[in-house]
Amino acid sequence: MKTNFSIVTIFILLFGCSSLQKTQNEQPEEKVYIFDELETLDEETKTDTLKNKLEELPSDKIPKKTIHFIVQVAAFSNKINAQKFVEMNSSKTNYELNIIYKDEVKMYTVQLFPFDSIEKAEKARDELKKMSEFQNAFIFTIED
Question: Does any domain span residue 130?
Fold first, then answer.
């Protein structure tokens, strides 16, 4: 029995190592492509080509994305708790608190209206964070 085990072990070692070396030897060589036959352009042609490309893209056709900055102050799993939070805390701030349902997380969030700059959103968040009710306020962005 001991001899059979030894023979099997030697057999595995011999053929296992040789298949590894065979696999390593069969790896394809890395190919390098060299593009020597490129057309060279003089400076005038380069400028003219760039102008043509820019003229092909009218500025009114380029979609402009608008980024909004939203301060979120709380989130609740049910609407009643979100409404209670708004009722209890609306008088503590000059900002209007809005309840927004987020289907992707199945939560009712309490947020301020979107700001058009990060500076305005940071100012509002920092003011709110001074109060214990809003200490977890944070900013996130959305694009139109």
Answer: yes
- Looking at the 3D structure of the chain, how many domains does it have? 1
| HSE-up of residue 136 (Cα within 13 Å, Cβ side) | 7
Answer whether residue 104 is part of any domain. Answer: yes
pLDDT, tens digit, for every residue of 10-54? Answer: 556 555 555 445 555 565 566 555 555 556 655 555 555 555 555
Query: Mean per-residue pLDDT for 55-82?
Result: 84
pLDDT class of 64 with cuts at 50, 70, 90: confident
| Residue 74 belongs to domain spanning | 67-143
DSSP assignment of 54-119, as one string? HHTS-GGGSPPP-EEEEEEEEEESSHHHHHHHHHHHGGG-SSPPEEEEETTTTEEEEEPPPBSSHH
pTM for the structure as a whole: 0.56
CA–CA distance from 65 to each of 10, 57, 68, 82, 102 (Å)?
A: 68, 17, 10, 31, 22
Q: What is the CATH number of the domain that holds 73?
A: 3.30.70.1070
Give the strand pairing for 67-76 and 107-111. antiparallel
